[in-house]
Design brief:
binds adenosine-5'-triphosphate; about 15% strand; alpha/beta; seven-stranded mixed sheet; binds magnesium ion; homodimer; 12 helices
Chain lengths: ~260, ~260
Amino acid sequence: MRRVIAIANQKGGVGKTTTAVNLAACLAEAGHGTLLIDADPQSNATSGLGIDRSTLDGHTLYEVCLDHADLDSIIRPGPVENLFIAPSTKRLAGAEIELAGSSERDLILRHALAASRRSFEFILIDCPPSLNILTVNALGAADAVIVPVQCEYYAMEGISSLTETIDLVRSCLNPKLDLGGVLLTMYDSRTNLSEQVAAEIRRFFGNRVFQTVIPRNVRLSEAPSHGMPIIQYDPSSRGAHAYRALIEELIERNEK
Amino acid sequence: MRRVIAIANQKGGVGKTTTAVNLAACLAEAGHGTLLIDADPQSNATSGLGIDRSTLDGHTLYEVCLDHADLDSIIRPGPVENLFIAPSTKRLAGAEIELAGSSERDLILRHALAASRRSFEFILIDCPPSLNILTVNALGAADAVIVPVQCEYYAMEGISSLTETIDLVRSCLNPKLDLGGVLLTMYDSRTNLSEQVAAEIRRFFGNRVFQTVIPRNVRLSEAPSHGMPIIQYDPSSRGAHAYRALIEELIERNEK
Ligand SMILES: Nc1ncnc2c1ncn2[C@@H]1O[C@H](COP(=O)(O)OP(=O)(O)OP(=O)(O)O)[C@@H](O)[C@H]1O
Ligand SMILES: Nc1ncnc2c1ncn2[C@@H]1O[C@H](COP(=O)(O)OP(=O)(O)OP(=O)(O)O)[C@@H](O)[C@H]1O
Ligand SMILES: [Mg+2]
Ligand SMILES: [Mg+2]
């Protein structure tokens, strides 16, 4: 049973890529065949998994969205067994303008996934920090969306426009789209702010907030400079423990 | 002599809004008439200065971009003397699609500023985390751009595509656009990562990096929840000292 999960939030720097990369790596480590699709032209997920962009030569998500290349033709193995990635480069930034006129523009990713012959248990999609065509494509293709929220004031403010977008996509593009969960990230137990924001988010979303909270942990921000997910860079760090706990909760939620 | 400065970086969460709000407030405190334009649909700069979005009723940047309203008609006073704001709401997110077909779409903000009869010494423009029409408009209207860069790996990666965009805008839209400076933000002296990234950025940009470095300081992230700039929320904090030091450096650079 394949599960497609978009990792989205238009607020910038809330931990979307960090969550996409590490959730994917932990799912793969636990034996689930996992594909990570990098739908952000910043292509941080691509470099976060150690892929050298200069070796991609025309086999990226841009070619799938604009030249009708098969998704399968761009998939390559990641640094962990059972983990694969559909990489991107900054060229994908052109998709917004180049797709603006096309009638099918919102469903390109869904069609590409439907045509794929690869079988993965989980497909994660890392989204850019805006509610543009790439994010709409990810929401249109997903079964569920995980929303990382940094435990800070500005990040909290933006939540209502995201849930409105999710409702809009559900009503006119993808009726099966479910809010998979809100994930509190960069929680710093030394500050009141983190606790205040976390309490506010729980009041608003109730049990749709994951019990697992990702702490602020410098090892998580060091790992990408080595091109590794946290379970390879520092498997005993608080960051690694938190993302491992998250997949257990995710799988439990899925089975309900 | 009016100076228009865009605060831009397509990487999310690097401190664009925090820099725009606090730089504007410090310039105003030092006696310079300052306007902050919120060009981000997230409208964090608007709430960061204590403006209640529900009181804006059609007097926002959306109306200037889409309904040809005068910029002067939306300007309102900020929480500090000499500080004014041109606010936004999430409605501005529609500008991307609604302006896509218009031939003048890249110069709307420059024309609106040219038509304004208000006189400010500094006009700051807070940009969204993407290289879209709103950011291009800000770069098209600006004399200079300040690039906040978080002292983290992913933020460093994105710099080259931003400088490419600045060069592109300079060559076909705004020949006077200057790189005003790269600002290191959220510098955490306890981590090696901050020092490594800072050293790398200085190697790449040389003296275009501001001497002033903004430290990670929780008071900066608490201030927005009170709708205040740091000089009001906690005037003796390290964050307030850093942004005050920054304006001195900025004014010195301007005079050269
Ligand atoms: N739990 C954490 N502890 C410490 N640092 C973190 C944590 N999560 C993410 N980071 C760091 O914070 C920064 C922002 O995270 P990340 O890039 O994953 O966010 P994002 O939402 O994907 O950003 P964007 O909006 O630009 O796509 C990165 O430098 C990352 O390494
Ligand atoms: N020097 C700092 N110390 C501590 N926290 C900071 C600092 N600068 C910014 N922050 C906090 O980090 C988060 C990201 O900053 P901010 O929202 O200003 O970035 P941004 O680049 O404007 O984000 P976006 O890309 O979404 O527009 C905010 O919650 C802010 O309060
Ligand atoms: Mg990201
Ligand atoms: Mg901002």
